[in-house]
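Much of our argument rests on the idea that a fold can be written as discrete symbols. Part of our work consisted of pairing the sequence of a single chain with a tokenised description of its backbone. We regard such an encoding as a compact summary of how the chain folds. The amino acid sequence and the backbone structure tokens for this protein are reproduced below.
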Amino acid sequence: MKIAVVGATGLVGREMLTVLAERGYGKEEVIVAASPKSVGKKIAYAGRELTVVSVEEAIAAEPDYAIFSAGATASREYAPLFAERGTVVIDNSSAWRKDADKPLVVPEINIASVKAGDRIIANPNCSTIQMVLALSALEREYGIRRIVVSTYQSITGTGLKAVKQLEAEERGERPEEMAYPYAIHRNLFPHGGDWLETGYTTEEQKLVDETRKIFGDPDIMVSATVARVPVVGGHSESVNVELKREFEIDEVRRLIEATPGVVLYDDPSKNLYPMPITAHHRDEVFVGRVRRDPSQPRTLNLWVVADNIRKGAATNAVQIMQALIESRIKN
């Protein structure tokens, strides 16, 4: 089997290689592709060294799967060219998420949305992945009417430039390049993504559109506020969710605990609740602070944390590929 990783030199691309090796693909033929400025560079992978090639060379190699983390512009240009060669593309950018004919997949929830002949599959936004996975069993059991979510998003979601900005500011130095309009060290700001005419941002709108698409329910009401915080370990979310039917809190806890890929991490008596350092380098979504909202019927509050580079990006993409491989073997 041949696997291409496009955008292999970036923060998420390198993590995709790590996850591939961890999940048993160390001996497969792996093609690492990136922009022209990175061609010829060497990348360590599973005890060997790979040479970065151009995206055109990767297309010509006709891999079975191409996992993209190269941005929406590159994906719009190159993903269809891979697909024409019969490659299944799993794309981590925003390029295809809203397309009605492209599945948007969290494998534990809706891998069945991928149909025979689908050649481009969208990986959801990191903040969406952790929220919908945490809520997936509740959505199936009770139905969801409304979600109000505030996210506290790691700088790693912006990329390596943001990490370098924070590190320079921590040292008291002026960053060579500013990823944000303000300092992030000892600060946070309610701004992630680009501004929309509504006053919301693209990061906030993704939570609305992607949640509805993944759950297959266009009537779910979602209101989101995104904040960027000086953290590298993962994204945190305060989620207020109104269900369609009444619930018992013990049953809610049982359903969350039984959800594949989710860890219920919740014991106030021991100050046990998820934090970014809890999720860092982990593939699970951690859920804590589970409690009924006394101000409104059929409503509860959750605190949800996940590593945005792992389950929020690289791991979810590789899991999609794994699920498709396993499905084809069984068939």
User: Anything to note?
Assistant: The chain has two domains: 2-123+312-330, 127-308.
